[in-house]
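Task: fold both queries, return tokens.
Query 1:
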Amino acid sequence: MSPVLSVITTVVVGLMVGVELSVAFVINPITLALPAPASMAARSHGARMMGRAMPFWYFGSLILAGVLAATTWGTTTSTAALVAAALLAVSVVMSITLLVPINNRSKNWTADSYPEDWREQTRRWDNLHYIRVAVIVAAFTLVAIAAVAL
């Protein structure tokens, strides 16, 4: 079971990292460079779309890493998987406490109705997201190490 579980965990976490890297370094810089009305439309649509999908992905990744750690307990694999799960837990806490509140505000912005500090709020979200991306990249690296160590 562990080899299959390690592959599934690696793929799920790796794809999540890829999506979040794309958001951080491609999508959000493009939307921030747009004029305010277009930027509002893009950011609010992205906030609604990603806000529906990402909670399942983050919690799913955390659960998979935790199960990988539990099923390999007492091995070097379990240590890497356990630290990966802890980092994924940090990313979930960061998301809920820091990023989701900004995301929830931005998903209601329109071209006609948005706050004056919208760029500051989006930059704050982006900066927090960079930190979260670093955390999940580290978690992904540890999941990959755990998968190879099996």
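Query 1 returned. Query 2:
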Amino acid sequence: MAMDDIRTARRFHGVAAERAGVTLDAVDPDHPDARHCLHSFFAELQERFDTGFDPARSLLPDAGELRPPRGVFLVARLDGEPVGCAGLKLPAGAPAEVKRMWVAPHARNLGLARRFLHELEARAAGLGRDVLRLDTNRALDAAIRLYHSAGFQEVPAFNDEPYAHLWFEKRIGPPPRQGAASPGASGP
């Protein structure tokens, strides 16, 4: 069976079958698989954005911002082939940010983007962060639908990313304690 036939069959047999061949690994942003994914991501943005995409104009995080302890960079591999990436930036004194999330066209609709979001959210919350942010371009309609369905809310711009049209935020930390006394409340 050809690789394309295998991938097509997996799409029809659900995410559970797909996960058997998919790994999600933290890697250095300079790892060849990470570089492959980022290069593919930037090429796709160049084609999809009305204005094209020039990484030199974007607010790209420095690779050091996506390495522990300041962040993490994940690569998804399908049967060993790099098919997606996502970064988590953990700036001091500011909310965590999702950066450079991408899934290869032939690996879409397999739940990888949602899996990236869940993993990054869990990592940020595990490190004590209570808010997760991201920005996106209006041309990425599937991503926008994903963010809404994953509980992200649109917020005012929180950065000057020239390619962003929409900014999102999600509360990921524990909810405020119930029954906590409000200011000025008197006790029994």
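Both queries returned. Flag for query 2: The chain is about 30% helix and 25% strand.
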